[in-house]
Amino acid sequence: MVATSPQAGYEEEEEP
């Protein structure tokens, strides 16, 4: 993936 929308509070990251 490439910089998905801020779903979990991130901008250009996947999972914590």
Provide keyphrases for this structure.
elongated, little secondary structure, 0% strand, 16 residues, 0% helix
Structure description:
This protein has 16 residues and is largely without helices or strands. The chain has no helix or strand. The radius of gyration is 6 Å and the shape is elongated. The termini are far apart. The mean pLDDT is 60.
Task: Break the fold down into its secondary structure elements and pairings.
Layout: no helix or strand
- Strand % is under 5%
Biggest β-sheet, characterized? Answer: none
Overall helicity:
under 10%
Gyration radius, rounded: 6 Å
Round the mean pLDDT to the nearest integer and report it. 60
Q: What global shape is seen?
A: elongated
Q: Total strand count, please?
A: 0
Runs in which pLDDT lies below 50 for 5 or more consecutive residues are none
Tell me briefly what this model is.
With 16 residues, this protein is low in regular secondary structure. 0% of the residues lie in helices and 0% in strands.
